[in-house]
Amino acid sequence: MQIFQWINNEILKMNWLSNIVKLLVEKVFGLSVSDRIGGSIHFFIYDTIKIFILLSVLIFLISYIQSYFPPERTKKILGRIKGVKGNILGALLGTITPFCSCSSIPIFIGFTSAGLPLGITFSFLISSPLVDLASLLILMSFFGVKIAIAYVIVGLILAVIGGTIIDKLNMESYVQGYVREIESPDIEPVELTKKERISYGKEQVKEIIQRVWLYVIIGVGIGAAIHNWIPQSAIEKVIGGNNPFAVIVATLVGIPMYADIFGTLPIAEALFGKGVGIGTVLSFMMAVTALSLPSMIMLGKVVKPKLLAIFVTIVSIGIMIIGYLFNAFSFIFI
C-alpha cells in the first residue's frame, strides 16, 4: 500500500516538484506561497511543468501502443462486431486515439465512409476525446485514483449508451451524402519496426505538444487566478453545492470553450480546491472536451442538423446525469 502511495505522491502528483518550485518562489523571488502573488506563481510554474512532463511521457507511451492500431486495422476490428459489443469496442478503441474532439472527427469520417455502423462510430467519437489512458493517469495526479477510475468508467458508459441510442434511431440517412461516397481503400497496414514505433511516438509528442501548449498555459493561468484571486463565496454562489443548477451551468459554460482535458484540468483543480462539487467539476471538463464549439462546427459538416442536435442532446444530458451522480455520491470518492 505504501508503494502505491509513494507512486501517487512522487510520480503522479510530483510532490518533489512542488517543493522545488516552493523553494524557487520563496528563496529566489522572495515571496510566500501563502500569499496571493506567491501562491499564483507557485501554482502556475508547478502545474505547467507537471502537465508537460506527464504529457510528454504519456503521449509517447500511448502513441507507441497506438502504432499497433492504425485506422485500417481498427476499421477491420470494428467491422467484425455488431450491436452493443461493437459499441463497447468502439468506445474502448477511442481510448487509444487522438486527444481532442477535432482530431477525432477525420477518423470518424473514415470509419463512416468505410460503412461501419453509425452507433459504433459515435461511441468512438464520444470516448476518443473524453477518455484516454493519458487522462486516467493525469486525473490521478490531480484528484486521486478513485475519481480518475470512476471518470473513465462513466465516460465509457456514456460513449456506449450514446452510440447505442443513435444506432437504435436508425440515423444513417442523416449523414452527409459525400461522406458515404468517399472511397475507403482496403490498405493493408504496414508493420513498423521497433525503431519506427519509437520515432512515431516522438513525432506525436512534438505534434501534440505544439497543438495544446497554448491551451495548457491559458488553463493554468485561469486556474491560478481562480485558486488565489477569486473569492470562494463568489464561486459557490454560481456553481457551489447550494445551487441546484450548478451542474447544468458548468456543462453549458463548458460547451462553447475549446481545449482538451490537459487544458481544463488546472481550471478543474482550482474549482475543486474552492469547494465546487466533484460532479460539477467533471461535468465542466466533459463538456469542454466532448462538445467544444469548434468540433461541433466540424461535425456539422459531416452530419445533418437533426443528427448533430440529437448527438449534442444525448451527450449533454449524459454529462449532467454523471455530474449529479458524482455530487450525490461524492463521499465514496473523497
From TrEMBL:
InterPro entries in the record: DUF318, UPF0718_permease
Transmembrane segments: 43-65, 86-109, 115-140, 147-166, 212-230, 242-259, 271-295, 307-333
Coiled coil: none
Top-level taxon in the UniProt lineage: Bacteria
The entry's keywords: Cell membrane, Membrane, Transmembrane, Transmembrane helix
Compartment(s): Cell membrane
Record membrane topology: Multi-pass membrane protein
Sequence similarity: Belongs to the UPF0718 family.
PANTHER family the UniProt entry points to: PERMEASE RV2963-RELATED
Protein name (record): Permease
